[in-house]
Specification:
This protein is of the alpha/beta class. It contains four helices and four strands, in the order αβαβαβαβ. Strands 2-1-3-4 form a four-stranded parallel sheet, sandwiched between helices. β3, α4 and β4 form a beta-alpha-beta unit. α3 packs across α4. The radius of gyration is 13 Å and the shape is globular.
């Protein structure tokens, strides 16, 4: 029996404030050996910057990627998927937010 982790790479897309060490995303990152999006500023979100961070993380994937998003990261993934639907194999989302 194959495991989903054998077929996909996982990307962790944190939301506002970056999902700290005790956040469920950080635990999943370790468990799944996931790639984490690294944004320059987690406290003052900028859509273009966050889209660039997600793009860079996806570029590290060697297999189809599933993005695990939280908070404003969910909105980032939605914007990215609309622009580049072929880059994301699937996505899971936590609590959402909105871009002002």
């Amino acid at each position: 029996m194959t495991h989903i982790a054998d077929d996909f790479d996982f990307i962790i897309q944190p939301g506002w404030k970056g999902s700290g060490a005790d956040h469920w995303q950080s635990h999943w990152q370790q468990r799944l050996n996931a790639i984490r999006v690294d944004n320059a500023n987690w406290e003052q979100p900028d859509l273009d910057s966050w889209l660039q961070g997600l793009d860079q993380a996806l570029s590290q994937a060697r297999r189809p990627a599933i993005v695990i998003a939280h908070s404003l990261g969910c909105i980032t993934v939605a914007h990215y998927a609309r622009r580049h639907p072929q880059r994301i194999a699937g996505a899971g989302a936590g609590m959402g937010g909105s871009w002002q």
